[in-house]
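Re: How this chain folds, sequence and tokenised backbone to follow

Filed under: protein folding, tokenised backbone structure, sequence and structure records.

Contents: The amino acid chain and a row of whole-number tokens, matched residue for residue.

Body of memo: The sequence and its backbone structure tokens, given next.
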Amino acid sequence: MAEIIDMPKLSDTMSVGTLVKWLKKEGDVVKSGDMLAEVETDKATMELESYFDGTLLKIFAPAGSQVAIGAALCAVGKPGEVVTAPAAPAPKGDAAPAAAPVAAQPAPVVAAAPTPVAAPAPVAAPVAASPVAGERLKISPLAKKIAIDQQVDTSRITGSGPHGRIVKADVLAAAANPLPAVAKQSGTAGATFTGGTPAKTGPIQQDRTVPASSMRAIIAKRLLEAKTQIPHFYLEIELDAEPLIALRAQLNAAFEKEGVKLSVNDFILKASAEALRRVPGVNASWTGTGIQYHSAAHVSFAVAIEDGLITPVIRDTHAKSVFQVSAEAKPLGKRAKEKKLKPDEFTGGTFCVSNLGMMGVTKFSAIINPPNAAILAVGTTVTKPVVKNGAIVIGQTMVLTLSCDHRVVDGALGAQFLAALKDLLEKPALLLV
């Protein structure tokens, strides 16, 4: 009898998955452990594994379709067996129906997702752009494949992904709204000259509606839930960043030959875990009927990926040195951007750090990532006049903003945590003990 392989739950917050592509075709011989397909969840793209030996008899969900957890994906059995698609499972809550076309607007789902630190920005429209000579085009593999299939000129697309990376939505939008050919004429196209300064005319982008990806739809739902159901309040503190910057430079210089390159964020992750040890009341979660206090500090950090965010977790951060934290954070961040994290690498965090300082943001307030009771927003280091020992000197400061769940963390408790965090970062040698 043929074995049916269903859509598995590949993350704790997953309700539906998108079949990116099949790695096997009907009639192929497969063995247990072979990879059958690539599945995109709300957090990552993962490979679907075969649990049986036999022949891939039937594919029930075509590439590009959204499939609910438990719905049939394919059948594996003996050659010649006749199989029919099992009945689709009844939708739970407001989960999307099985095998909904990917081009359709995805229905909101109950699953959780890593909560972005700010309201999601609209996807930027593809606009005409002249590539810089010698510059490497930044485009995701999936977007590149679609561009080839749709015969879309990617050199005229401005990507909406991290660092201008062209993603699937950009290519689909460009295919639906092709840009007119650029006129070859003297002067500047699309500009009216008045005096010596060209006045640019015309729209900055094309009006269009892009269907939300399953990740973006879930993020939108979770943002609304987190912001409306969690009573947020915010605490802000400014610290002297000079000792931290100086120690980081000394350590990086001392261990340069060993390939060590500590970041400011590595120290903040470690300091957050130590502050949670000093003020354990913040290392907690609201359960609906009570407060769960966690015995270990599993600190996560926000990473921007295509069409969303994900929060890799460094487990037992309190028990690791800043060097160990750095050694774990770098590959986790790399796999996160490649959507190759395993479920246990982005679940189970008890506290989250979101750092936009590297992008020049001076300060901001983050939205709590449930079930955490707090999230730390980190701004950039600012050089400015400060008062030290009664004199005005040039200093370097950093603003930290703690978003707290008032059901778990009161103002005084949050203030104690920030005070502990400030003490650790202004005396960073304590993090090396």
Notes: Helices lie at 141-150, 168-176, 214-229, 242-254, 264-278, 322-337, 411-426. Residues 235 and 263 are 24 Å apart (CA to CA). The chain is about 20% helix and 25% strand. The first helix runs from residue 141 to 150.
